[in-house]
Amino acid sequence: MEEVKKRVTEFSLEAHDLYLNRSVPYLEEPPDPLQFYRSWIAPNKPCIIRNALSHWPALSRWTPEYLRQKVGSKVISVAVTPNGYADAVSGKYFVMPEERQMTLSSVLDIIEGKGQLEKAVFYVQKQCSNLLEELPELTDDVEPHISWMSTALGRLPDAVNFWLGEASAVTSSESPRQQRCVYNRVCVCVDDAFTVSVHKDHYENLYCVVSGEKNFILLPPTDRPFIPYGLYQPAVYHQRDDGEFEVVEQLGSEVPWIPLDPLNPDLEQYPQYRRARPVRCSVKAGEMLYLPSLWFHHVQQSHGCVAVNFWYDMEYDIRYNYFQLLESLCGAASAAGPPGKSSVGL
């Protein structure tokens, strides 16, 4: 098994030497579909595209005042946590937020610090086409799809997601809770200081910043041998009448999740992460990040950042097969390691 560890480590390091960039390149205009497929989608490499959103009305319209006027009275599903850590590892649990029904205006009031100070962090993140079903008034401000991406892939996006948050928010786009509805999904998120672990998605992702700035930490799929996983019992937060939160254990299978914080990695507990080569990038207003499928990522944002992202389902081809093989080898190598070691990595 030591030989397996050695080979998958060499596999990862060779990918960096052969074709992965040490920083995220910029394209100065929307690309030709065929060229984009050949240069970025097929080799599974990220890039930032400038001047791709200039025709969107959302660039000038989407302020808190506009959102209150257009959809402020709408009742939406709101996720609530005690400390901003949602869909994240806490001790032996993978903890999901409490969900409530609130108007969008009341959520904006909390985020902007108006009214009574709350002992909780609120964000909006409901799945299954809530932009179309709950907030259709906003759909005219953006495109239903990115034409050159749809042409390159030969299909329309599976999800169009709207994000609005404050400076301390750190976000995740997919968790076991969210995977219940993965097709025709449109979600809205208004978040205030919530945090979740680094993760990956099975989508080709176009992340478009309307205002503010998004800061990404990216790790390629080939760095999987250096990224630890653990198994955690699912749980949810519940706020009691006295305002304090408790963690309520849920029935169900253990959830595989990444316990490592890339902002402050515990290299004593996860020494293999020393070999990972994370790439950092900032996506500013009017810019679009192409985040390839299966790339691990962690996201932070500036105050009042507004963004829209388009998820196109990945092709489940030989690239996916190879990644599944890599995951299996990492799991096998970890299982053969010292007794009591719970994380899946090398």
Automatic annotation (TrEMBL):
This protein's name: JmjC domain-containing protein
Gene3D superfamilies for this protein: Jelly Rolls
Record organism: Takifugu bimaculatus
InterPro entries, A to Z: Cupin_8 (IPR041667), JmjC_dom (IPR003347), RmlC-like_jellyroll (IPR014710)
SMART domains: JmjC
Cited PROSITE patterns: JMJC
Pfam families tied to this protein: Cupin_8
Residue ranges constituting the JmjC domain according to the UniProt record: 124-327
